[in-house]
Amino acid sequence: MSNGEQSPLLGEGPSLGQQARIYRRAPVARATIYGILTAVFVVALILGSVYWEKLGGYVGHLPKDPEKAAKRLLDVAPIIDGHIDLPILARSRFRNNATAVDLNGELYGHVDIPRLRKGQVGGFFWSTYVGCPKEDQVGEDYLNATWLVRDTLEQIDIAMELIQKYPNTFEFVGTSTDVMSAIRRGRIASLLGVEGGHQLGNSISVLRQFYRLGVRYVTLTHTCHNAFADSCGMEPGIKPRWNGLSSLGKVLIEEMNRIGMLVDLSHTSDDTARQALRHSKAPVIWSHSSARAVHDVPRNIPDDVLSLIGTDDTRTDAVVMVNFAPYFVAEEGKADVAAVADHVEHIAAIAGRKHVGIGSDFDGISSTPKGLEDVSKYPALIAELYRRGWNRFELSGLTGRNLLRVMAGAERVAQDLQAMGLEPKYDVYDKRLDL
Ligand SMILES: [Zn+2]
């Protein structure tokens, strides 16, 4: 028998006969072990296939079902919306009385806490918006006294009052790392944005004060031109004032770069956007804008501007956060989840998937796309893009990481410029005669 040949030739211990018995038992033991291992493997395989989606979750894979996939993704990469107009709703309906605004109940409009939670929102920019003055009110050089700066302070105030009223829900933040830590604590990171250069009272000092109050982006224009830049208006054919940025507008961008205030190009004219992209040392944003090639309105971004966005040396890093306003999304009656997804995909096709985000404009729009009626519906858009083949990295970029990258980039530029000792800008609007 072969076992005898394999037994040790010499040595103490068991006799050859005993050894033979031991070795005869070995194949049986081996077979048993193999058997057990095979059984364990088969059971693991069966369990694995049954619980594949659950197991996948632990290593980051998304379930096949788009709705489940969206939910799973948003659990770890929640929505950070670039533009929500809750403060103007508080002004127009509640006279800026935070006591009267019950965000725990079902609030008029598109936003309240139950719906924010349902929509898996991790943060948003509270837009502190004040409408454009009438041209005859402000004068052709924008010099007449207005209440715009007061009203903006009131909008910052109501945003802050609402944020502080719900400390277990909202956390006021000012940096990309603060956004992430608020989300980790289960809070909704709350940032402030000012929606128009007209709200600066032609003054770079006011810009700095808004930053000190926590504002982290200023939209260069709303629907009116101002001392800094041209707007795209609402209808085509608006006559430019500066053919883009004014000289003060360029200084404004330089100061925004220095202090870490994001340059927001939504609402600006195409020339303003092109020049700002060239002039800004920091990454920029479109807080709530869509694609003109998909739906041709002035508020949307043309392809040649989108093609200036990128992370190589010849382009500027940016994130375009897609607007849900039906008027900007599609022809009347045709705005739905798929149409909004078309905008996301078009911007991604030209600028890259690292350069899209979400800027719904909720509470700032009078109607909504079908399927995206309020802040509880974001998962439908994520599910739609998952269905179209977007992977979890691309989707988490869309939901917030692209915006965080741009914010971190602007923060770095500000640190660098300040470390270089760059002086604050003290330029005064040249049409002003009082200073
Ligand atoms: Zn707007």
UniProtKB/TrEMBL annotation:
Nucleotide-binding keyword on record: no
Alphabetical list of Gene3D superfamilies matching this protein: Metal-dependent hydrolases
Transmembrane segments: 31-52
Co-factor(s): Zn(2+)
The reaction(s) this protein catalyses: an L-aminoacyl-L-amino acid + H2O = 2 an L-alpha-amino acid
Keywords in alphabetical order: Dipeptidase, Hydrolase, Membrane, Metal-binding, Metalloprotease, Protease, Transmembrane, Transmembrane helix, Zinc
A matching Pfam family: Peptidase_M19
EC number: 3.4.13.19
InterPro entries tied to this protein: Dipep_AS (IPR000180), Metal_Hydrolase (IPR032466), Pept_M19 (IPR008257)
Domain of life: Eukaryota
Record has Protease as a keyword: yes
Family per similarity comment: Belongs to the metallo-dependent hydrolases superfamily. Peptidase M19 family.
Protein name: Dipeptidase
Lineage, uppermost ranks: Eukaryota, Fungi, Dikarya, Basidiomycota, Agaricomycotina
